[in-house]
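=== Structure Prediction Worksheet ===
Name of assembly: unnamed complex
Input type: mixed (protein and possibly other molecules)
Chain count: two
Listed entries:
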Amino acid sequence: TQLLEQSPQFLSIQEGENLTVYCNSSSVFSSLQWYRQEPGEGPVLLVTVVTGGEVKKLKRLTFQFGDARKDSSLHITAAQPGDTGLYLCATPRRAGGTSYGKLTFGQGTILTVHP
Amino acid sequence: NAGVTQTPKFRILKIGQSMTLQCAQDMNHNYMYWYRQDPGMGLKLIYYSVGAGITDKGEVPNGYNVSRSTTEDFPLRLELAAPSQTSVYFCASRPTAGTGIYEQYFGPGTRLTVT
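=== Predicted Assembly ===
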């Protein structure tokens, strides 16, 4: 099973600051997803990256997929209190044969943005 | 569109009791999943199903059972509850491969405490 390491585990910042969250693996990702989970809710997909070197933007969020497809980052510009939540990266599990859509998740980064 | 629904939202069990966590989706998704989420541990797959009548174990199946008699419903059964099963449980679903790259849709979760 591919292991995903996310860093940092916790991040507490003031409104308006920028931040970056990382997701790394020793193995190559077939694809990588970023989810955001708000308190008391289930995770919601933000983006899927597939191609090495890919950059995707979602308003103030910028997602990068490493050229070697072993790492990814999420950068938030001018963070707002509404960005507070748990950010999870996930990749398809491929333990021989079809994955049936199963995902392996990182342990997550808890982001708190203070007004 | 209700998406993925879970009941109950909260539950407290005594050691040795049993219960069923309900999950339903109205998106006609064939693939469904049960995860548990412990603090700082991301999401761990308990069981999954690729269609009515077909289920299989995930990473952490011990102490749980599932059934899938219809496309819509995927209940999770806890027999002889133990304190180690205190967690937040999420149900998720996704379309069969070909309609998206492993995006999963999550329910709001069930917070279970075993004392």
